[in-house]
Amino acid sequence: MIELGANRYGKRAIRLVKVTREPGGHRVRDLTVDVALEGDFAAAHTAGDNALVVATDTMKNTVYAMAADHLTASIEAFGSVLATHFLEYPQVRRATIDLREHSWAPIAGARGPMPDAFLRTGGATRTASVVTVGDGPVVESGLEDLVVIKTARSAFSAFPRDRYTTLAEHRDRIMATRITAAWRHAAPDGDWDASYGAISSTLLEVFAEHESESVQHSIWVMARAMLERHAEIDEVRMSLPNLHHWPVDLAPLGGTNRDEIFVATTEPHGLIEATVRRSDP
Questions:
Q1: What's the CA gap between 7 and 221, in Å, rounded?
Q2: Considering 18, 26, 32, 56, which one is annotated as catalytic?
């Protein structure tokens, strides 16, 4: 017997820019939005019957139309509005909205920030995911492309060795990574902007201050601190590629490397991922 398994569909990479024009200056909101629906869509696969299929073009247009009135605060709030809307279709059992916000900052002029000229900032991209089913939304916040580096107080040693192991042990090395993190909120609503600022600050503070024995250790220490300090979240997922910085041998060039000169590589790289959550009492 052959049957259809899990399936979903949607519209990815919906590019949305909203300019809010206020007397004191403009604000640019630059989002990439993904929409995915699950539900009673089996007939579209097995019988070629599109009677219940919400067109992906309709999803795109819905995002644009609802942004006019509802993209006024956090991306989490906007995602909740979108997810709730798509769940109004009776054939939809689950709606997932993933959002990324790309930041723009006013350009400084001779007399201060310009009201209508902006510079794309190069820091982390703020992310959010809202999943809505019949019993209400589950909201996650997060960030991606947060590039950080520790030039001291990072180690990797006492690992297994065999005939293929060439990596030297280091008690003080450079550790660089591009952090992707997401944290799940315990409640479906909140002050998302304030929460994002506080939790991301905790992540950075702990990364900077702790003594790292490995990237795995760093994930645990950062995520545990986020959960301990912020009662509004109950799970943290993190992905940290190890962006290697290898010391350059200057001896063939007639020099001595005093732990100053490195070559930065992006591939191949280690990839360390983990989920840290509150356990049941």
A1: 37
A2: 56
